[in-house]
Request: fold
Amino acid sequence: MPVSLTIDIQELEKLKNYILATGLKRARPTNKYELLRIEDGNVKIIVYKTGKVVYNDTPESTAIIDKILQTEEAYTYVLGSDETGKGEWYGPLVVCCVAMAPAWIKKYRKLGIRDSKTLPKHKIIELAEMMKKDVIVKRFVVLEPKTYNEKYKEFRKEEKKLNELLAWAHSRAIKDTLGAITYDKARLVIDKFDVEKMYRRLYGVDSTNLDIIQKSKGETEIPVAAASILAKSRFEDSVDKLNERFNVKLRASSPSEIDPKILPYVAKIHFKNVQKYLKL
Reply:
């Protein structure tokens, strides 16, 4: 069964050097998207121009991938924080922070952990269930619609907008995760949305041995991708429970199809499509 992951330029160079050093046989690319193709006995590795690598799941191919994958050996842990639910009018806001030792990052790369937005629902659930059983540190902040609406109202009274609420939720998950680990040096990666507000919310966190990075497309980092999958799984589970509790089908409905009396319990009422219906 083929396995896929993404490598960076340094890892590609390591693969090329490994080919030269061992004399692995290269094959002619079969299409314009392939950058490199290796076919030698039990080894079959294809590198695409996008950086995606597909290889056959044999001990020989896996051993080569292990050799070229870089690890975050400088850190005891790498943390990733991500959220889901902010773009949906229904369901909760879920923030998850994950802390991984370097060995787990390498393992998850080989398992194809990536941004939850690129995965089908069944794969998200499958990967989330696997990670729930693994010995990695994970902390959640889940604002169910009723609580979310109350919290949003509090922030608006203080003339603070959604990004302030997001920064508050991320900082809570991050601080809870940092409190659960012991490290010599750690790296924290946050999927960037508002640098200033996020740093302000993290004020007081001891950054002596903690590198804090906010980056666009943070899900390219395995801990952030893992956090996105776990957050999405929790979101979907919560929506299922809301559907059952209130006898609705939130994913297939519009706010106008939901009883206004229960909207505050299933929807984010500041969304324009919800507001419009409530005013009517």
